[in-house]
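Aim 2, interim progress. The first record below pairs a target sequence with its structure tokens.
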Amino acid sequence: MTQESIRTTESRIVSGQALSDANDLGIRATDVAKRMPDVPVRRGRSIAIDDLYRATLPGNPQVSPDGTRVVAPVLTIDRDADEYRSTLWNIPLSGDDPTPLTSGRWNDSSPRWSPDGKWIAFLSNRDGKNKQLFLLPADIGEARQITRFENDVTEFEWAPDSDRLVVTSAIATDQGDDPDIMIIDAAYYKHDGKGFLRGKHSHIFTVRISASDEEPVQLTDGLFHHSQPVWSPDGEQIAFIANREPDADISGTDDIWLISARGGAPRRLTDGTGTWNAMAWSPDGGTIAAIGNTGITGVQTSIAHCSGLYRIHVSDGATEQIDTAFDRVIGDGSMSGPNGEPGVPLRWLPDGSAIDCLVADRGSTVVIRFPTDGSTPIQLTGHGRHITAFDHISDDELVIATTEPTTPAELHRITPTDETPLTDFNAAWINDVYVSTPEEFWFESNGEAIQGWLLRPDGNTPDSEPVPLILNIHGGPWAQFSSGWFHELQLFVAQGNALVMVNPRGSSGRSRNFMQQIGTAWGEADMPDFMGAVDHALGLGGLDANRLGVTGGSYGGFGTNWLLGHTDRFKAAVTDRSICNLVSMAGTDDVTFSNIYREFGDPWETADRYWELSPLRYVGNVTTPCLIIHSEEDHRCPMEQAEQWFTALKKLGVPTRFIRFANESHGLGRNGKPTHRVERLKHTLGWFEQYL
């Protein structure tokens, strides 16, 4: 990559040394990948909160085996029912108009073509109880239900024979007769968005569509969680991911296992020192491509978040890393949206010569091709967008689900020389609103090149009357803002504010070293980047240094709280699903063993460091009016974090308000009840309107 391939503004202030990490990936790109996508200029009325209900979001495209059409789930909101709906659509690659395959009355998701092209399997809640596996004829006909498990079917995949499928569903251990009593033996006993697991463990089953009266065959057992089953090309084995060790709930590792499709004892393929989060069997059956890490046992600094691409030999478990010369995290690390249903992050070419992967890079998610012979990786798609899913039409053609700076999610077709849209679901409303086009900038902070974007309200220019500026901090911290469509951020602009978003050190999309700098220095390492972005934006003109706001969710809420305790420059703040006390949070969340303890060490050994990095330690310095938003069922950043922050601010006399949402989890802003999402936005925007 060259410097010229990054979209810039004249205000870039970086040194060549600092920018080198941000540019040089040592890869080659197709002609399409060298071009930035066109960014339509959207003019019209101000975007509104209620436009949330107008978005139609396709995702996870699946190309038919004959390469003539795509089936994709399309997400919408049923305003009257206050529910989400997902409809399967048929999208011809001939250019004909898309048509719905299902009615839109339910949540029909995760479509998969049978290898012979005769069937589309999908998940649906249409039985009124939970998500089960259904089967739809590829030509015409009614869907029929295949599974009737007590709990949701969470994953599935077709066997090569187009008759069998492998599925995962949870089985509960005996919890006694009193639902008010939980018997807990494992440290991993709750999960955000799922709640208390109540002894449930996910297991792997096979089902046959030609024998619908047969009971599913259970392949795995034990008090372990099994996920992501994939068939071998000959249909004889199934690979899956699990930790089946006695200390599975606290070790923070997992393995790839193999089991016969007829059952029997599973064989562990990997060495017990890594963590794996996605995989795909090679076409010849000799290796498995996997995204993850090896050698992460013990306390490591963010290394578990720096996933690489590996090839694992089925015969002996020998593991080789494919992307050793490619210093980016493999997988989609971008934040935008909300978007449609995500897809798998890696796919083999049919001849086994390469593996195509989603890759986070400098505020974009792109598709990179990694040849298995070790030759130079090839970038297949351009920057300036967030690709959430892709599939192959042929070796050199893709269909992608993508969101771009002023356009919500749509599907596009990409060839080596051209790109064309396949859907235009949102044109009817998005063409009538003002959407701020993000202005990308780079600046230097403590020797690192830091990326950010400025969104200006309609009519604001460097020479305009200054408007308020709001800093938005992303969660993670191992994630990145993208320049893709983001309804919530556009609302700040519609209210007359400018908004700056930044990818500080710790963000994905940069080198592994860049990501690991945040590991044991939350707040300390990235505060200069946050404030540097604010100062850089102010230097662009038309922004009011005396009317600064700050907001963020999850780690962004931590960052908001941290800044309030270390500077009085902000005049208003909204902290969302935040962290304020690492000491009290340790052991109360659902990621302690995989994240917090691994980063900071055991709290009884390193309590001083936990407290030193806790915003609550510095709350006595806070003077900024602060709105606190939190969900009752948040198991990622538990409610006690918000309670402590609120109580401290009240005691100090700082203007504050506490909004608690019942029956919502950590993901309220992305997938909570639509009416709750609307209320959350009203409170957030109202707070900034009052104080800025």
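The second target in this work package is listed in the same format:
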Amino acid sequence: MPADSDIDRFDSRRSTVYASGGVVATSQPLAARTGARVLEDGGNAFDAAVATAAALAVVEPMNTGIGGDVFSLYRTADGDVGGMQACGRAPASASYDDVRHDVAEEQGADPESVSELPAKSPHAVTVPGTVRGWEATLERHGTRSLGDVLESAIRYAREGYPVTEVIGSAWGRAEELLRADEDAREEFLRDGRAPRAGEQIRHPHLGDSLAVIAEEGADVVYEGAIADAIVETVQDRGGHLAVEDLAAFEPMFVDPDSVEYGGTTVYELPPTNQGPVAIGALAIADAVEARSRPYESADRVHAFAESLKRAFHDGRRYIADPDAASVPVLHDRAYARRRADEVCPTATDVSAGDPPMRGSGAENADTVLLCVADGEGNVVSYINSLFHGFGSGIVAEGTGIVLQNRGACFSLDPDHPNRYEGGKQPYHTLIPGIVRFGSDDWAAFGVMGGYMQPQGHLQVISNLLDYDMSLQHALDAPRWRYFVDGTLGVEERFPAPVATKLDRRGHDVRVRQPWLFGGGQIARYDGGVLSAATEPRKDGIAVGF
């Protein structure tokens, strides 16, 4: 590890939480407490993950919900490492030509000039994978029923909860979107406005939907009354989603991709998720020996940022549904060395060209992440999302369920691997993470925020492994972020002398708002000792017992 006294002087804002029974870290205190209560009552990390995710679907409704998708990476107490992708597809009957024509007609444009699917279009609504994913998690790895773990979420929805500060701010930015939909206004606004921090709010229709799911299981969302409401709402707005699309959906359990870095193994989800961007960036950074630079130096940030740029552009160019496109192995060591050879002392362009989908909103989309570890050795990184704040802005009539707009991640460029096709999975920004420090030392981690996610993974892993930071310190440390317009964003707390030197190296450095730099969580099991951390960019806490 490079010696650097500045690391020791960094004043972390919180302490790492240590426990022996179980730990939960997430972005909202009531949700974290929900998961911890499940652990205290004898449930395992998978039970707690679903309970926490369901609570978040109520208390952080702009970022997650029943109408979205869910992904996980995990290490079980038995030593198995795996992943789940509960990612909905585009409607099977929706053709590329029809959707492109519909979008062009809405915009009054020539279809040949349309390359992106609007984020608030009914065509951006894909099959929601969340509830099937929750149920599959419990059936494969949990010890509790879906009805059991939904109890707290139902109570918060029906009885109400006070809105927290960061969530209240994000809610306020969505007021105009919510006013445009009658069901959204009724369920998520108070007297025509978003609730403010400290105000109590209820979601009665959402509470009823959760109660029906608790009683009847996931089938009601995919083949029952809730499925009918979702389909009717989307079709009334001109979308192609059909009951058959929902009924056909099943989550996939997959083998993660991984890369060796700093004596550890870092695991990410394979395509259609952007996990290969994170481990591709780690492989390139390893090849340029980025870790050898002092922490408080422009050399370090430059080396890591240039590595990330290349992996990011490669990912945006190649990652797509693997059933429909051939995706190269972006973390291949030989390929990483070739990309590393392009890294110069100054900022450079990259060979894969501009990232597509500039207008999709993927850059600044947000979501929720929770990490759980229990005393048996299970560790779970679990992610749920609607993509944009309140997704498509469309609420299925009478259900309180916000429908995601993940289809906006498709390209309408006919030559792109990720182009829109019926029955296809879109590119997904969501990436949970797992790291193996040793044979009995594992951590679940992640950093949220659209295209910030692989960048946050890169920086947090480096902080932990290259600079020997504690879990909390690794999350607190000021971050940088590469944006698709080519600028390099830095937080206000970022050292000014380092930012100035980066500017001199050719980086277009901009100070950006803190909420653009993600929201990270970590939960670790180390030989029976549990630890966890969350970060002050969100409202959340880490809870242990």
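The CA atoms of residues 26 and 32 lie 6 Å apart. This observation will shape the mutagenesis plan for the next reporting period.
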